[in-house]
Amino acid sequence: MIPMTLNEIARVVGASMYDVRDAEALVTALSAVDSREVVPGGLFAATVGARVDGHDYAAGAIASGAVAVLVSRPVGVPALVVEDVQFALGLLARHLLEHISPTVIGLTGSVGKTTTKDLLAQVLERHAATVATDRSFNNEIGLPLTVLRADAATRYLVLEMGAGRKGDLTYLTGLAPPQVGLVLNVGTAHVERMGGRLADVAEAKGELVEALPADGFALLNADDPYVVGMAGRTKAQIVLYGRSSEAQVWAEDVRLDDRARAVFELVTPSGRAPVELDLIGEHQVSNALAAAAVATALGLGAAEIAEGLTAARRRSTGRLEIVERPDGITVVNDAYNANPESMRAGLRAVTALAGDRRTVAVLGTMGQQADASRARHAEMGRLVADLRFDVLIAVGTGDPLAMAEAAESANQGVAVHTVEDVAGALRLATALLEPGDVVFVKASSEIGLGACARALAGA
């Protein structure tokens, strides 16, 4: 972050100062919305959530070294008071970008955003100073916090951009106008809130490429017709990537090694080079090609891109995170979130990883699937059976029961169990697991199955 005085910050965001002794005090460190992540010299932004009000933690943030707090009401400690904390963070981020000049890279999609962001960041940071979204901080609060980590030395600013509704990406690209835009795919995540159809999701995701300048780059997935259809919505130069013959960045000789990690030959306009990913599942090839397409547009050669992809490691938890227990049980925690596309990819990746070992799937609700929710859960149940999982534990009432019923009706030999909640899933899985098993845990984040996966991994 570029050091700024409280006076300057107040002027940028239109804040009034309360209980501030030194208006020229410098904010020199990262901003945070979690008081546990406050560092000396930082700024704490008190946001109000469904269950937690950040204002209650303002005093603790100051005690931890925050110079001041950004709040919507006085709280008895040095404070910059604004009407809307979220909006003020956006103003502050936009102000910072006006004083530095990184190449802003925005990426969006229904599946794979965080993994692709992590891969891309690891490729680019070998080449120049890079700041990328932490974890999945990709919304109206997380994006400004990422921007505020940048400084004059930052050359690449990689911003994961989430969209729960139409208009979200227009807002985010207004805060941080991208020169490079990457669209991964169009799937059923958030389809209910966007209008109920994949075409509605595509309309929302395409807001990213509409924000690109004429001298920018739009990287589009050649394997997704909805994404390719966005080509007419941008003034930027278009680069296609994928397995399609139309792609300008593509993969040849794709295979999985004995640990289910993807190996392939990367082909770009600058040449070709071998890639050996450290991530499981063939679906990771698409994520790697997306990162390679961005790096290609930025002028990197095939060899250095391939080296970066091969050296990259998983950075974000809860996404096909593998833990090998001392008793030989392998826990695959993919419980950060779930939709049909990511569920399919995860189930297939775990099947490849397991080989002839016994497989156990602990699966919960895939949220926001609109009227098709029950049918999509049933489809996942059939897939569990078709992939010959040995055990299915369906967690929750409603749609997970449709998953269980479909798996049982398939008559493929899967042992189907149902439990009502996460605690029940943990008890049953603990009782059923045998040495050598591979257990896959996945559901939408609000279900909380990540706690089950972590407990199983630590058992």
Automatic annotation (TrEMBL):
It catalyses: D-alanyl-D-alanine + UDP-N-acetyl-alpha-D-muramoyl-L-alanyl-gamma-D-glutamyl-meso-2,6-diaminopimelate + ATP = UDP-N-acetyl-alpha-D-muramoyl-L-alanyl-gamma-D-glutamyl-meso-2,6-diaminopimeloyl-D-alanyl-D-alanine + ADP + phosphate + H(+). Its EC number is 6.3.2.10. Keywords: ATP-binding, Cell cycle, Cell division, Cell shape, Cell wall biogenesis/degradation, Cytoplasm, Ligase, Nucleotide-binding, Peptidoglycan synthesis. Residues 33-76 form the Mur ligase N-terminal catalytic domain. Involved in cell wall formation. Catalyzes the final step in the synthesis of UDP-N-acetylmuramoyl-pentapeptide, the precursor of murein. Its main location: cytoplasm. Residues 318-444 form the Mur ligase C-terminal domain. ATP binds at residues 109-115. It is found in: Cytoplasm. The gene is murF. InterPro entries: Mur-like_cat_sf, Mur_ligase_C, Mur_ligase_C_dom_sf, Mur_ligase_cen, Mur_ligase_N, MurCDEF_CellWall_CoF430Synth, MurE/MurF_N, UDP-N-AcMur_synth. This is UDP-N-acetylmuramoyl-tripeptide--D-alanyl-D-alanine ligase. One of its GO terms (molecular function) is ligase activity. Residues 108-295 form the Mur ligase central domain. It is an enzyme of class 6 (ligase). It comes from the Bacteria.
